[in-house]
Specification:
The chain has helices at about 5-25, 30-85, 95-120, 125-140, 140-150, 155-170, 175-180, 190-195, 215-230, 235-250, 260-265, 270-285; strands spanning about 205-210, 210-215. It is mostly helical and about 290 residues long.
């Protein structure tokens, strides 16, 4: 066979393998329906995905708004917390106060608590409540004058009504019938609160033996309250002290354990009692 024959055979084989492959890759006929279906898909897919995208955007917007709302609520709660911050009081005689705190603490655990527990075990609660009503009834002058000086005329009038009604229908004040029959409750008022009502500050913090936490303002008030308390006019003086001590033990019999709970819950009981006292007096002045 001549060389040209070999060349022709090789060219034929190449044409048979290359031309069909070239024709498949370059022929546009089979691609047209594919493009049409692809175009249909590209038209249909936005219609299906558009509402989904809008809903997704709404969800994303809501998720972004929720933290903002929570931050606003946290800010508002923070502002409320600042409004309810602990009232500060000067404590320049800290060594004295600390010593009196420990004295009263030992007095409570060594004397007052054991006596009060023994007393409550012997005397029924109904009798102890009657004794408490009696002492609260005879201290009406303190509440009446305190209300009158603060121009709380209605409260002053209610105190007079309570005293008259409890002293008669309540058998000398042993029963608080003014509360049960007339719906008139007792409102604690004293001269210390009266001073606070007129804008006089605490001055500084002070703890007195036996009496407990106080302030310069409330100490002056206690002196005034002493002259309004009928027990202060009992003679001899030792009898008046004994009556006041009995009243203290009787009242404490209703609250045994509260002091212990406060001490256990506090990091520094001294500071906790000081803060609790100032907050309590602030609330009383604002009432």
């Amino acid at each position: 066979m001549k060389p040209i024959s070999y060349i022709l055979i090789i060219l034929a084989v190449l044409l048979l393998n290359v031309v069909p492959a070239f024709a498949d890759s370059s022929t546009p006929v089979p691609e047209t329906p594919l493009m049409e279906s692809g175009e249909a898909k590209t038209v249909e897919e936005p219609e299906a995905t558009t509402p989904l995208t809008e809903e997704g955007n709404q969800e994303i917007i809501e998720e972004e708004q929720e933290p903002a709302e929570e931050q606003q609520e946290d800010a508002e709660s923070g502002e409320a917390g600042e409004e309810e911050e602990v009232v500060q009081i000067a404590d320049p005689i800290y060594p004295w106060n600390k010593a009196m705190y420990h004295f009263n603490d030992k007095l409570y655990f060594w004397v007052l608590k054991p006596v009060s527990k023994g007393y409550s075990a012997v005397v029924p609660e109904d009798i102890r409540l009657s004794v408490s009503n009696f002492f609260r009834n005879i201290t009406t002058p303190i509440r009446f004058v305190g209300s009158l000086m603060q121009l709380k005329i209605k409260k002053a009038g209610n105190e007079l009504i309570r005293f008259v009604y409890n002293s008669t229908a309540g058998i000398g004040g042993l029963a608080d019938v003014a509360k049960t029959d007339l719906g008139i409750s007792r409102h604690d008022e004293d001269l210390g609160q009266t001073f606070g009502y007129y804008g006089i500050g605490h001055g500084f913090y002070v703890i007195w033996p036996f009496l407990g936490p106080s302030s310069l303002r409330d100490t002056v008030g206690l002196v005034g309250d002493y002259f309004l308390d009928p027990v202060g006019y009992v003679t001899p003086y030792e009898a008046a002290v004994g009556i006041a001590a009995y009243d203290k033990v009787n009242e404490l019999s209703f609250y045994i354990g509260d002091y212990e709970d406060l001490k256990e819950a506090a990091v520094d009981p001294y500071v906790a009692i000081r803060d609790a006292y100032t907050q309590h007096r602030k609330k009383k002045v604002e009432e």
